[in-house]
């Protein structure tokens, strides 16, 4: 408890896991990473993106490196790779460009205002010591506190004093004497990012320096990483309904929503697409789209930006705010079809989580539609689709700094794909399929990259039929979830048919579950409301640098004798480093294992608790060894004969042995 409270207190001040100052000449040559790893370790997995990632801790700096630390509610835990660089006035971090670039993205954190609401503070950008530009950083979209659905007020009392909390191991309003709750309580969502066009193209080897100037309002500025890229020229569409012809204001001074509506109506009648040329367009409500193509000049050039607007009376769907977003028609109105959105940015203004609000970047129902090449920032959810709907393709988008999910296929979404998307800093599941009331079917998440989901999972599948999760890269989940979850929860329909989870890589997952006080798996199967018994094939996945377990199969203690997990098959798996076990089984059921290779395993290879009834016949969970399972760690082979088929080895809280950094597999 004391360590938890201390971590919370330190996080609030930014003084977390502070190391000695880094050498100013730490890196004269660029260190390029993907998810803070050597790119060779994740080759062929995740999204192919136009930018190059460089971690601040690998760059030259006279600031201080913070981390590594995976403890929730601390600044390093939410940083990519669990490290970052802390700067004060006069300090800098300098990146050497690995390729020609004319644009950068800086991921950063600065303090909140004492009473919440955020501050702004400058950060100077120079290249080779010249051409200074000042970025105005903000924490207005960061810093959430307290319990779900969270608060912007660091001084708020507990939102749910009738909930059990790990900090005191108690239910506060049922405890005498009342526990002391340190404020701010559970600060999180520390980071934001900002993009900048540099005005010219710089060469490989040129040096981009980020400096905190004297007099900066922020007492400290933490830089997590810099993405650099070469942005092409704006796209021009001449044969189109140009929104400027209908009165849209590219300077963003006037609201352009009506002009967009007129352009869409004209384009539909004339069988043209809508073109949105370079500029920033103010749109403060939904743009309803059906049977229309809307193209921008590219998401660095065409920005559609809006304020969150309070409604005078709640909408029929329960929303109390509206804001910028492109929405298909509701299914009750027949839904939309043949919608194609591409080449622009959506900049929202969402600073608090209100689950009934429809303030998402893209929403509604859109069958036979495509969403391609968007940059979606500061909305509640990047893309939330409410089906039934069929055949939507979500490709090549960047979805960042969301209050809740990145993307959710919700309720009867079928034959749809999300591929080659980059998702960072979501406030809930980054990519989710949720079969609430009506089952999803035939959907695929393929070759996406997910980094630092602050809450919940990188990829979550809640029910459905014939689902594929393939080729994705998921890094650094923080709390109350992990990299990949397969869950019967949230009222989801059962899993049926097949579920293929193939050729994915996770890194620095297997988080600590604060409500259970145990470690999760990088991939975890959770039977909370139903059995999980569809044919599940987990093949070719790599689980790297797992904080606790690589694989978990679990039920909740209150339903442990009701639900089981069966028919799960693991094959051709690599596990490189676990703080504890390769497999943790806390449910009744069974799974098979073939060619699962593990190394640097910190505890017994299989933590088998079953349903916690501990019968003399062995655990209620059985493992089948199909051969080729090799390697292990501190206690010998990870899948030893003595563990089979159902030896009880239950120890949920063994000593954690931090694994070494991942390395090439020989």
TrEMBL record:
UniProt-listed InterPro entries: Agl_cat_D2, CBM6-CBM35-CBM36-like_1, PbH1, Pectin_lyas_fold, Pectin_lyase_fold/virulence
Q: Domain named CBM6/CBM35/CBM36-like: which ranges?
A: 51-228
List, alphabetically, the CDD domains matched. CBM6-CBM35-CBM36_like_1 (cd14490)
Keyword Signal included in the entry's annotation: yes
Q: Which UniProt keywords apply?
A: Signal
The answer to whether keyword Signal applies is yes
Q: Which residues form the Alpha-1,3-glucanase catalytic domain?
A: 271-603
Signal peptide bounds: 1-24
Q: Which domain of life is it from?
A: Bacteria
What protein name applies here?
Answer: Mycodextranase
